C-alpha cells in the first residue's frame, strides 16, 4: 500500500475519552506504514481554567478571543496538560510518539488573524514539512495548535483550522476530526454525507452552530485544497460524516 499521511484532530473533550478502538486503529495504520500526525485541542480545559482564574471566556464562531493572559494559559494547558497526557496514553499502548510544538525548528509559522477582534489568534503561513515528514516516518507526531510569528510571538490557532491547514500543506490523504459527537447531527441523526451547499443551509438554519462551525469550514477547506478525504466522527473505525465536494456529483 502507498505510504500516505493521515492527520487526526482530537478535540479537547474527545481526548479525555479515547476508546480502545482509537489505539487499535492507530496500531493498524502504523503497521501498514502510514504516517500519522495528531493535532490536539484542549478548548474545554482552557475555558474551565480561565473561569477559575477569572479570565473572560469569549468565542466568536468557535474561535477564542485570546488576550495576553489567555494566551499564557492556553500554552500552559496545551503543552503542559493536554499534550503530555495524550503522549502518555499513546505510549501506554506501545505506539511510537513524539510531542511537537511551534517552537521546534520553525515548525509552524503564522500571522495575526485580526488582532483588534481576536487578540493573539493566528492564521498559519508555513509548515516545516521537510522536517515534519522525516519525523512522521518514525513516529506519530502529536502537535498543539499554536503557531509563532517570524519574530517569535506565540499565536493561538483553532485546532480544527490548524489541522485542516496542516493536512493541506502535508498533502494528506485523510483528515479525521475526532470529536464528542458521532458526526454532524440533524434531528438527532448523523448526516452520512455533507456537501458544501447542504452545510450552508444547515448553518443558516442554525442546525450547525458553535464548535461545529470551524470544523465544517476546516473540512471543506482541506478538501478543496487537495486533501482526499475528510470526516467528522467520534470513532476512528466509523466514518461518521463524510464531506463531499460538488465535483463528486453525489446527490445532496
Ligand atoms: N449540527 C451539529 N451536529 C453535531 N454537533 C453540533 C452541531 N452543531 C453544534 N454542535 C456542537 O459541536 C460540538 C463539537 O464541537 P466542539 O465542542 O468544539 O468539539 P471539539 O472539542 O471536539 O472541537 C458538539 O458537541 C455539539 O455540541
Ligand atoms: C483560537 C482558538 O480558538 N484556539 C483554541 C485552541 C484549542 C482548540 O481548538 O481546542 P478544541 O479543539 O478542544 O476546541 C482554543 O483556545 O480553544
Automatic annotation (TrEMBL):
UniProt signal peptide: none
Q: Which reaction does it catalyse?
A: N-acetyl-L-glutamate + ATP = N-acetyl-L-glutamyl 5-phosphate + ADP
Q: Which InterPro entries match?
A: AceGlu_kinase-like_sf, AcgluKinase_fam, ArgB, Asp/Glu/Uridylate_kinase, Glu/AcGlu_kinase
Q: GO molecular-function annotation terms?
A: acetylglutamate kinase activity
Which keywords does this chain's UniProt record carry?
Amino-acid biosynthesis, Arginine biosynthesis, ATP-binding, Cytoplasm, Kinase, Nucleotide-binding, Transferase
List each copy of the Aspartate/glutamate/uridylate kinase domain by range.
5-234
Q: Where in the cell is it found?
A: Cytoplasm
Q: In which pathway does it act?
A: Amino-acid biosynthesis; L-arginine biosynthesis; N(2)-acetyl-L-ornithine from L-glutamate: step 2/4
Ranges annotated as spanning the membrane: none
The keyword ATP-binding is annotated on this UniProt entry: yes
| Keyword check for Disulfide bond | no
Q: What are the residue positions of the site described as Transition state stabilizer?
A: 9, 215
A Pfam family for this UniProt protein? Answer: AA_kinase
- Annotated binding of substrate, by residue: 42-43, 64, 156
EC numbers: 2.7.2.8
The protein's enzyme class = transferase
Similarity remark: Belongs to the acetylglutamate kinase family. ArgB subfamily.
PANTHER family named in the record? N-ACETYLGLUTAMATE SYNTHASE (PTHR23342), N-ACETYLGLUTAMATE SYNTHASE, MITOCHONDRIAL (PTHR23342:SF0)
Reported function: Catalyzes the ATP-dependent phosphorylation of N-acetyl-L-glutamate.
**What is the recorded name of this protein?**
Acetylglutamate kinase
Q: Which organism is it from?
A: Loigolactobacillus jiayinensis
Traced from the root, the source organism's taxonomic lineage reads: Bacteria, Bacillati, Bacillota, Bacilli, Lactobacillales
